[in-house]
Amino acid sequence: MRDIISISIQEISRLEVMQCIKAKELTQTKAALMLGLSLRQIRRLYAAYNKQGAVALVSKKRGMPSNNRISEGIKQSTLALIRKHYYDFGPTLACEKLREIHGLDISLGSVRRLMIDQEIWETRSKKKRKVHQLRNRREAYGELVQIE
What we know:
- There is one protein chain.
- The protein has 148 residues and is an all-alpha fold.
- Among the domains are: 49 residues; 46 residues.
- 47% of the residues lie in helices and 0% in strands.
- The radius of gyration is 29 Å and the shape is elongated.
- 14% of the residues are buried.
């Protein structure tokens, strides 16, 4: 039985190009221009495609965590500081204070994401809007309300 491989659209286009190269319908140089890769990269991909088939074109990083992720310890210490000192701050000011006072060099985007995930801060679109009662329209154009 065959294994099922999930493949992205970019990888499908690479597979089609590799099939064209194998069928001698396309040169490696033209394939490199089509895919926006170097000739060396096309040769490497084609050699792997010949040995392993379509599996060779699937990214090896799929399902792996990012190399640039924040460690769990830094996340927990940042959240503890935010909850203790900066629970009513927005992400920008909290990030500045973490950097100035605590010497914690963490990006604004990371602070924002942590605060949103922990429901410390809400984006404008998520905040509940205040409902204001509508007033009755005036009977005549330009009419003012007289208050005594």
